[in-house]
Amino acid sequence: MALIEHEVPEHGLIHLLELKKENLEIVEITLGVSAVCAGKTIKQVMLPAGSRLISVVRDGKAEVPDDSLQLEPGDSVLAILEPGKEDELRRVLVKE
Q1: 93 three-class SS
Q2: N or C, where is the chain less crowded by C-beta within 10 Å?
Q3: 65, 53 Cβ separation under 8 angstroms
Q4: What residues in the chain have per-residue pLDDT under 70?
């Protein structure tokens, strides 16, 4: 992971993998203390169409989330989504 994070963009979204044939990509977003989704369950977050949260890493432990998982500041969230949905995803997860 350190190789991927050598230069973290200012918006906190890191592209990890592009699946061109499937028209999908996997991204990572780390939730800050002011993330709009902090304290909400995944079910309460209105994820953009064409996106899914596939993993949440908290305190060094990864888990496959279900709708009842409450998101917290400091969580690293992996999402799979259609290209072009990054801004929408960022808006519902991290923007104030």
Answers
A1: helix
A2: C
A3: yes
A4: 1-11, 96
Three-class SS state of 88: helix
Total Cβ atoms within 10 A of residue 94: 20
Three-state DSSP state, 37: coil
Give the residue among 79, 32, 82 at the shortest CA–CA distance from 55. 79
What pTM was estimated for this model as a whole? 0.81
What pLDDT, on a 0 to 100 scale, did the predictor assign at position 2?
A: 46
Burial of 24 (0-12, 13-18, 19+ CB in 10 A): middle
Spatial neighbors of 17 by CB under 8 A, at least 6 apart, are 25, 26
In eight-state DSSP terms, residue 89 is H
